[in-house]
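[Discussion] Sanity-checking designs against the backbone

I'm trying to build intuition for which residues belong where. Below is a structure token string of 126 positions. I'd appreciate it if someone posts a full sequence so I can compare it with mine line by line.
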């Protein structure tokens, strides 16, 4: 297990940008990392994932072109850059770690991730 702490959420207007950070309490360089979100009354939704090296990423179709995932392995930190935010992006955003060692293809299913953060709230007003 690894402890993950998200930050960077907040209340913004539509069209604004936010960058979420996910800091790990120990080395995560070997793990794929992912972002998910959950809005009230809705199921948890895949947002983006990145493999251990950062060379392979996936972003949900509805967020492509607006959201970017990246990582800084020296800092054990994963980022989610969110641009052109919309009210429908309002949700709690969660960071997660896939604890398989150096998997080349990062997963997109929540069940593959074994460690989760507590989440950070993003609220986008119209």
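Best answer:
Here's mine. Compare freely.
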């Amino acid at each position: 297990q690894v402890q993950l702490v998200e930050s960077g959420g907040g209340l913004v207007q539509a069209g604004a940008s936010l960058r979420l950070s996910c800091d790990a309490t120990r080395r995560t360089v070997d793990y794929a990392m992912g972002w998910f979100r959950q809005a009230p009354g809705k199921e948890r939704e895949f947002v983006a994932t990145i493999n251990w090296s950062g060379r392979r990423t996936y972003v949900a179709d509805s967020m492509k072109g607006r959201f970017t995932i990246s990582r800084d392995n020296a800092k054990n930190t994963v980022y989610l850059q969110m641009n052109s935010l919309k009210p429908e992006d309002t949700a709690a955003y969660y960071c997660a770690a896939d604890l398989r060692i150096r998997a080349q293809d990062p997963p997109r299913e929540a069940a593959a991730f074994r460690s989760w953060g507590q989440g950070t709230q993003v609220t986008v007003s119209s």
